[in-house]
Amino acid sequence: MRFVFIIAAAVALAFAITLAGVAGQASAQPAERQAAQPAKKKIVKRAHRARGGQIACTAYGCHPIPPNCHPQTGYRWDGMPSGFDVVVCR
Fold first, then answer.
1. Cβ atoms 60, 66 nearer than 8 A
2. What are the residues facing 49 on neighbouring strands?
3. For 1-90, where are the alpha helices, taking DSSP H only?
4. Which of 7, 9, 26, 37 would you label with 45, given CA atoms 20 to 30 Å apart?
């Protein structure tokens, strides 16, 4: 009789440990899944600058051209292109 009681207690203990292990894994899986997923990047929307029109690269640097003006090729005194733009306004 004592032998049957010890066997029954051992089986009950094994069953309880198995249930505790399954319950522990079931509650730990969502946390593990969350930790395994990479963090989402925060999307920052930035305002875009309006285009200011054309840019002319003169001998003094590149600058935006005012409205009603346009760049043309600049020439040296001997008629050869200088490599720079000239701003021509109407």
1. no
2. none
3. 2-36
4. 37
- DSSP one-letter string for 19-42: HHHHHHHHHHHHHHHHHHSPPPPP
Tens-binned pLDDT, residue by residue, of the chain (90 aa)? 777 878 888 888 888 888 777 666 655 555 555 556 777 888 888 887 766 678 899 889 999 998 889 999 999 999 999 999 999 998
Length of the chain: 90
Which residue type, as a one-letter code, is found at position 57? C
**Token couple for 54:** 């054309």
Rounded Cα–Cα distance for residues 54 and 68 (Å): 11
Q: What are the backbone dihedrals phi and psi of residue 65, each rounded to the nearest 5 degrees, phi first?
A: -95, 135
What whole-number distance in Å separates Cα of residue 32 and Cα of residue 4?
41
- Helix (DSSP H) and strand (DSSP E) numbers for the chain: 1, 4
